[in-house]
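Morning run. Coffee first, then this:
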Amino acid sequence: MNLNKYLDISPEVKAALDAGKPVVALESTIISHGMPYPQNVETALNVEKIIRENGATPATIAIIGGRLKAGLSRDEIEHLGKKGYEVTKASRRDLPVIVARGMDGATTVATTMIIAEMAGIRVFATGGIGGVHRGAEVTMDISADLEELAQTGVMVICAGAKSILDLGLTLEYLETKGVPVIGYGTDELPAFYTRKSGFGVDYRIDTPEELAAAFQAKLDMGLRGGMLVTNPIPEEYSMDPDVINKAIDEAIEESKRLGIHGKQTTPFLLAKVKDITGGDSLASNIRLVYNNAQLAAKTAAALAK
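And here it is:
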């Protein structure tokens, strides 16, 4: 256990970790930047509930008043939900200044991984990861999530990468960095809102026990970095690929026109896609997060055994 002087582990999470019980990390960007209030708070609390129902302890991760938090209280989740975009979206590069200034930060996939590893949490459930953006050969816009997966020993369970990204280049980048990309019950990389992308994964695994065994082997061998588990959105909530891809293309065109770039890109595109699809994309987003939370809890329980 790394008792980092900037880290606060909630009593519930600390008790579970000390007893060797399963714990699942959750990010907080989805609360502040992912959806409107009060839907964001409701979703965050439901995700925690699903993790508890599946035998694990949830540890929602954020930075509150400059303190790295592993495990948030209901009031802290409410605080992030109400402040929304006022909360800084915090990736690895933002941590030193946010902590030194005593600010609040909503953790991305990268920072959630960092704080989870610091606290001794090995499994993390999220919606989708960042990746290589379309046109990255010109803009060099590549998410820090990919670098973090290359160096931080946490298993990330997601619904694939959002198809606002260049999925082929994202997979190439992960291969270069030595990150195994696993399809849970699928041979194809899921594309967040839809179950199919046309791109293959490295390995297909069909049970939480086998996921846990593969990750344990990685830890035992001392191999640096994480493991990416892509869990397709449940069939009944999957969106029509043509509808979602058309919406994404429209959103990307508009973002180019408005000159949006950097960390503003993803929130802008997701909000735009939600508007174009009449809110269907947000409903799908919530369902896939619930689905990932369930798989993460089962995998964390298998790992704890």
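The longest strand covers residues 57-64. Good start to the day.
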